[in-house]
TrEMBL record:
Gene3D superfamilies referenced in this protein's UniProt entry, alphabetically: 3.40.630.30, SCP2 sterol-binding domain
Protein name: Uncharacterized protein
UniProt xrefs under PANTHER family: N-ACETYLTRANSFERASE EIS
Pfam family name, one: SCP2_2
Organism per entry: Tessaracoccus flavus
GO MF term list: aminoglycoside N-acetyltransferase activity
Biological process according to GO: aminoglycoside antibiotic catabolic process
Amino acid sequence: MHEMRTIPVTDELTAELRAYAVAMRDGFHEAPITADGWARWHEAIRHDGARLRGVFDPDRPFGLASVPVGTFASFPGTINTGTELAPTNCITDVTVAASHRRRGIMQQMMTTDLNEARERGDVFAALTATDTRLYGRFGFGVTADSRRIEINTGHSFGLISQPSGSCVFATGDDASAVRRSLFERWHAEQFWSITRHHHYWQPGFDWATQTARHDRHIIHLDDDGHADAAAVIVVRDDHVEIRDLLGLSHRAELEIIRFVALLETHDKVVWRHCFDVRHPLPWAVTDRRSVSVVKEFDTLWVRIVDVERALASRSYEGDGEATIRVVDPLDDNTFTYRIRVAGGQPDVETTSREPDATLPLDSLAPIYSALQGPKELASAGRAQGTPEGLARVARLFAREEPGISASIF
Ligand SMILES: CC(C)(COP(=O)(O)OP(=O)(O)OC[C@H]1O[C@@H](n2cnc3c(N)ncnc32)[C@H](O)[C@@H]1OP(=O)(O)O)[C@@H](O)C(=O)NCCC(=O)NCCS
């Protein structure tokens, strides 16, 4: 018989906390945690206000009964809906020991956590998925993508625009403070931005391998000397890796790329996560083929926990009206919603009217974030409606740019 319980996050790194982290690492088959790793993990879960949950099997042999067979963490966060930073349940550490899989343990942890999120009044639940087959059944849908970009920075590299401002190096702690403050400003303005967790501000350590990493930090200053973009780079054997790059404008980000390209040690720069799928970088270089998108992948999966509130909280770029039938696999939000936007103000109510489109909850998520439209989702077999109805929904949710999320957790 299994027992699920919460694990208190205390100022002392207790045996219970250690057992949780060991089980979570084992679940992902990752390297054991080092002394430095323990200190960083403990600091991060306290900063993030983590809620840790473990499932225990009292009959586990070889003295392992106190080591959980299932781990699950969630953190309070926010998503920018265009009108507010809406409370969001950020989920991570989802593992079940290989010896205990396919017995419903993940299902139990997830449904318990999602029920608590609804009771707390969270509008969204969010995660970044290692395995994409797991979360649709809980109503999570893909809402943001990221690109891995390679830049050939050999002799022919150049940007069309003239340089502006200047780039400077900074040390880890100073740079983390600047990066954090830039992120907070960006998060407050950017539609679909989600909170970044504490690990983003813990430089110089590779969590996966539990080894020190020689990060270099670059800050771009505008013409008035104010920081408007920052990057963390690592020099690898045959390329320079941009581990993180975030600016208040595309122009500021391009200045950092210009600087990294001119380091002159390598002919290749790899930008691991370009979170803006419409980033102008390929249009900014003199040789279009010096920039290649080598991979595009899903990043933020969202379950809309409270559909009515989420629809009322979203910013819409034009006035209009549409009626959608939402089908929630967990049933909490299975209703027909009528959305009327006048003067930019949405009015949302449940209705018995005929819907323009029928959307499983996991398909409403990319429509909400403007990653994908209802017509395309219908073609893919993920939505239903008449061409006119789908077009009405598409017009209402259309945005000049899709949302951007710059966090992986
Ligand atoms: C993914 C993982 C947590 C699943 O845990 P679990 O306890 O075996 O899952 P459950 O038994 O609760 O399964 C719940 C549902 O998911 C399905 N499912 C579980 N693992 C799956 C997989 N790898 N692929 C497809 N479906 C899967 C189950 O079939 C079940 O659906 P059903 O009720 O329709 O049969 C576990 O396999 C694991 O720890 N994997 C390694 C770590 C990992 O990838 N974690 C995910 C991080 S995002």
